[in-house]
Amino acid sequence: MKRKYPRATLRKIIKGKRSVNLSKSVDIAVFLGLVLALNKLAKAASNKAQEDRETVITSRHIASVAPDILSSLKG
Q1: Mean pLDDT throughout 26-49?
Q2: Is residue 49 within 8 Å of 65, Cβ to Cβ?
Q3: Which of 30, 34, 52, 60 is the most buried (most CB within 10 A)?
Q4: What is the percent of the chain with per-residue pLDDT over 90, rounded to a whole number?
Q5: Are 8 and 24 in contact (CB under 8 A)?
Q6: Confidence band, pLDDT 50/70/90 cuts, at residue 1
Q7: Which residue intervals of the chain are DSSP H helices?
Q8: Which SS3 state, helix, strand or coil, does residue 10 take?
Q9: Domain boundaries, the chain
């Protein structure tokens, strides 16, 4: 199975321009964190759509819950 994003490229992005040592699984940890954040965002947007009595999640629903989700991820 071909990866959608090569691990070496992801590691270069994480590392940035600083020369820091990264563990072997840091790219996987970052990917899993991203998946969890997107899952949390999707669930919150789904709840917002249900509150508005709509069956389709729109960008309006995502935009209304995104600041709360992002602030909860920082801390």
Answers
A1: 90
A2: no
A3: 30
A4: 43
A5: no
A6: low
A7: 7-15, 26-51, 59-74
A8: helix
A9: 39-75
* Mean pLDDT, rounded, for 47-61: 94
Instruction: Please state the rounded mean pLDDT for residues 47-63.
Output: 93
Residue pair 58/49 in contact (Cβ under 8 Å)? The answer is: yes
Q: Tokens 């209304």 correspond to what residue?
A: 64
User: Rounded to an integer, what distance in angstroms lies between the CA atom of residue 68 and that of residue 54?
Assistant: 21
Q: How far apart are CA 11 and CA 25, in angstroms?
A: 10
Residue 23 phi, psi dihedral angles, 5° rounding: -70, 165
- Quote the pLDDT of residue 3: 67
Contact 61, 41 (CB under 8 A): no
